[in-house]
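Entry 14. Structure prediction run on the chain below.
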Amino acid sequence: MSIYKFRVEKQDGTDQAMSDFQGQVLLIVNTATGCGLAPQYKELQDLYDTYKDQGFVVLDFPCNQFLEQAPGSAEEINQACSLNYGTNFPRFAKIAVNGPDASPLYRYLKKEKRTLLGGRIEWNFTKFLVDRQGRVVKRYLPTTSPLRLKADIEHYLAKE
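Output returned:
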């Protein structure tokens, strides 16, 4: 089983097949522009810029479930990310990551990589690393700096 069986909603309301990212190493992150961890957007962009030509993509899923720190429309979120952090990696429609309305993709991610606290997403900027075969290989805490993931990203980029 892999993430390629899922479809997600793009910010413009159209569907995106996760299989469109087949063969790439993915970092999937639930984000919030109003979160104290939002400066991680800059680090995520740095990773994307460094590795995108090698088959690496950051996938940004805004989530308003944690103290409503991702308010606003898709356009407002895009504007905040572009102006404040210079991001240009793929961003999707706002989603739920926990509870009965959690996106099927996030239900799968949480099932594949549980923590000591179970599968629940603890906060904004929880990160999942997915290998080129669509397997969820690592889960990182919200407070883990994206720049600390370089060795893992390079490891999975080197594997075909």
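The radius of gyration is 14 Å.
Filed with the rest of this week's runs.
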